[in-house]
Amino acid sequence: MPESAFNVLILDDEPGVLELIAHGLRNRGLTTLLCTCGQSAIEQFRQAREAVDLLIADVTLADGSGVVAGVRLKDLKPELKLIFMSGYSLPDWSAHDAALVEQLPPESVRVLRKPFTNRDLLSTVGELLGVALQPRQAREAAKIRSGRSNADRVVRRAHAGGSSDFTDPAVEHGEIAALASSYWTARGFSGGSAEEDWYRAEEELRRRMRAGSAGA
Prior knowledge:
Elements: E1 7-11, H1 15-26, E2 31-35, H2 38-47, E3 54-58, E4 60-61, E5 64-65, H3 66-76, E6 81-86, H4 95-103, E7 109-113, H5 118-129, H6 136-159, H7 172-186, H8 194-214
Parallel strand pairs: 1-2, 1-3, 3-6, 6-7
Antiparallel strand pairs: 4-5
């Protein structure tokens, strides 16, 4: 699954909680939208309805109910997934909120009991979206492996008399990006310039292709 393939709308009236949840999800490659009230969530959702895949909402908000807001959004987009956060179990919720949740399709809603860990959050999000959420370091390691494989494929193409430059749009950017990301990873995910890494990767792949052509 490509990075940022999923977009998550987070609704909580505590900014610190919003940022904490968003940080954990962004580190797994998800895009987040943050809202501190139900009305703001509805307005943002209407603007980006097609892009939003999941709503994570606190049940109790300063301006009302996160459950009510979630149900309204699901009415606008039936395939929307919902996670409701609460320090109480469902039987202790208001009768109205509990009834709304029980009427939702069980495969599209989860209740996350506070306090929860980042692992609990990621497991629940991954289950609903049907994806394994990897940390950034794991994704970068995968890019390195992909970069090595793609670079070798470029050399083999050159040996076979293929293109002598980056003229194949199906492989060009993926190969450069994968190799460039390996430079960043080797530096411990810090320092350097993305632009410099990109040009360095381009030159390295061209050098490998020229070496491959010379040895053919």
